[in-house]
Amino acid sequence: MFASCSPGTKAWVFASQRGFPKMALIHTSIDPVNNTLTISYPAKPHFLASLIYGNKFRKSFTVPLDVNALPENKLAKYPVTEVEIWRQKSVGYDLSAHIPQELKDAIFSKNYTKVDVGLFAVVDGRNRGINHMGPPVEVLGRPNTIGFADFAPIHILGLASVREFNELVKGEIPDLSVRRFRPNIIVGGSPSYDEDDWQTIKIGNEDYHVMSRTPRCKVPNNDPDTGERNRNEPDVTIRGQRNIDPGAPLLGCMGMHMVPFEREGSINVGDKIDIKSRTPDHKWGRNLWTQIEG
Question: Pfam families given for it (predicted)?
């Protein structure tokens, strides 16, 4: 997770496309065999590279993928540091020394104002709780927690929902990419907005509790290909046409938050989805599980 702070303060706060839209241009790839994460970013090319790549020239750097798995002598390089996420205090291994200055200048400079930029990895056992919405510990067999995610560990969205919604904004955005909504799981073959009332589902061999609808901020206004933000859309139309959740009356919703019943599992492209139960009673901020089970 990237974070930022005022120069010299070290009061780290998580960074996202809300404040730094050019973060959309950061790409990642993983190498689980060598336990590495490669982070690439747009960079100014030297003369020869400019002839070959034009404005698509990129550079990259590598950090450990699972810092918790490092031997103690290497883990000592990454101090555990406090970082704030939505006013919740959390901690992470500080990998900031790996960040090239060129990335900071390209992605995180705002109106020529410099900020300090940090990079953090989750510390096992130091996660943030979200048990006010979702299955209790008696059901999950573990606390309902997340690492650095906004709210839930998984976000799911139907491709048909995005395509139907695109018809409402195609004058402004002809090709609305599902990537604007940043789902972990994209569903194909379901009717548009079918996910709005899912309650429990199975994907492949894994079961999931659908905790809530996803109230949308303005990040979908950001074009993931350019890092440029549309002033109005799709935010204005989402708020007007997808105002479907009584718990978030001023925000439109697209997609659903989920939590897996098992701590570990697998998912594959092409897995079938079984909708095991539905509910019309999703309401942002309410623990639907307690209502159903109580």
Answer: MOSC
